[in-house]
Amino acid sequence: MVAFKLELRCPQRVDGIAIDPEPNWSFESVLSELNSLEKKLNASPTPVPFTKTKSRQIANGKSLESSARRGFVMRVSDDEMEDDIESKDEEVHDRSLVAVRRFNCDALYLSESDASDDETAFEAESYLMDEVGLVEGALVELTHEHQLGVKDEIRNLISKLDSELMSENELSNSALSRVEKYRDARRDMDRKLDTQYQRKIAEALDNHLTAVQRDHELKSQIEERKIRSDAAYEEAKRKERALVEEKLRQEKAKAEAEAKLRAEEAKRAALEAEQKASKEAADREAAEVSKRISAGASKDEAPARQMVGSSGTSNAQSKESGADGIKKSQSAVSIIRAAESALNLEQIRSQKLKECDEKNQSLTLSTNKDFSSHERHISRLIRQIRGTKDNVRTKASELIKIFNNPLCPQSISIAAFAKKVVSHCESPDNAAFACGHVIVMVTSQVPVAMDLLLGEFHKACIYTVPKHMAFSKSAFGSREAYYKTIGYREEDGKIESHKDYLRRLESYMRLYAALVQTEIPGLQNAHGLKEGWAWLARFLNALPANTYTATALNAFLQMAGYALYRKFKSQFGKMLNIITDNFLNALRAREDQELKPVIAEIQCYIEDRKFLEEPEGRTLQAALLSSTMVPDANYQESYTRYNHY
What we know:
The chain is an all-alpha fold. Helix content is 68%, strand content 2%. It has 20 helices and 6 strands.
């Protein structure tokens, strides 16, 4: 028996099909496998190494039947097929090759491609398997059927396992999806719980901060109450001292008046005695002269004539001095235009201001202390005044506290307050109505501060008196001296411009008008609407119509006209008619181009009845949140005027 090693010149696998057949195949199985292989190869896009031109048929049916009944066994080398074809002539084969049984392929048809590779391979008819008997064929068939059954069982088991695996996979996927959903739901729940927890923390923190703020405000109120009680106690002591001082002053004044009266009586008695003695001497001299005349003594006539001449000369001198005094008073009246009552008040306030300055200078020299820090504190408080009730109340209480500070004399702090208030009205951020409220609050507790403040106003602006000074070359000598007298400022040797002076004049009048119209429940304004009405009457009766007076009147009406109308109603309307008929006509008669804007403003104010509209800033804004806490009953009773305000 000769063994053959079948090797094909093609790859080991084609389209996933191995060329190594399974062992113990039947011939029919080989044919079917070959047919299926050819179909796959023909259907593949790759070039086919061989082409079948003739179908595989068995020559006679007997051999087919016998081959169908018998199986065959074929063994192929385990090594991979090599490309080298020249080794087929070797006579010794590998040990891995096993002898196989031959079978007859008498009528086996091979394609031309198979024969083309190696035609000599099948020249001699060879038998791969010997013929077997019936029992062996049946055994082979049974073995083959058993193998097929096992393969079917394996396939069934594999399919079953695949189905179970797919179902398990589906179950695991569904479980995984449920787990993911649960995880998402849990994450959302955690997020909601976290948000809720943060909200609770924020609420707790807010409540804690609110409680801390409330405690702080209560402590601040307690401290403020304590400070106010101390201030009230100090104020009571100060008032008591002031009463004692006033009583002593009155007693001293009474004693001085009595002494003065006694001195006048003594002087009058001495004068009467002197007059009596002179009369007696004159009578004696007259008697002597008469005796001399009667005696005819001519030497006595000369002394009589000299006495008459001397008496005539003295009468002439007295008449001349009286004429000069009348002339000087008439010239002063023609220069200064103001009501007599206004000039008297100005003189009183200026005198008080002068006395306060002298007192402060003596205190500074005697104590050798520097009070500039208190003055800077007062200036800072005035600059911080804003149009809110809480701010105004706070600044007023702090200023009163400074006035009652024993480390600084009250006269120095009050004088600094008056100067800083008047100078602050020139700043552009000046809140005139708020400053008016602070002034009324402070002066209601310290009345002497009002006279000093008005004295500073009159010193800075003569139209707050009201007073006007006309230019006279004989009185002033030059225009520059006149400008300095009425309030122009000099900087670097130059007088300020007319426009700058009018702007400052307007700012002074706006603050003065805001002061006179300020009304606070529970507090008395020592320079209120009655003084504002008196200022307007004195202004219209005494002052001429010019640029200065028109600017002052316009500023006063803009700030105080609303309050004056509410107080005096029709009487204020009559005042406006006087302004329209007299003052504005006098301004127009001057035919000055600079007067046209101010004339238009005053006329518009009267014709449009703007005095019915409350000026901007007159009503202060509401208090801040920290001042909305309701104080206790004792606090309200102690400081009723501030709470009403």
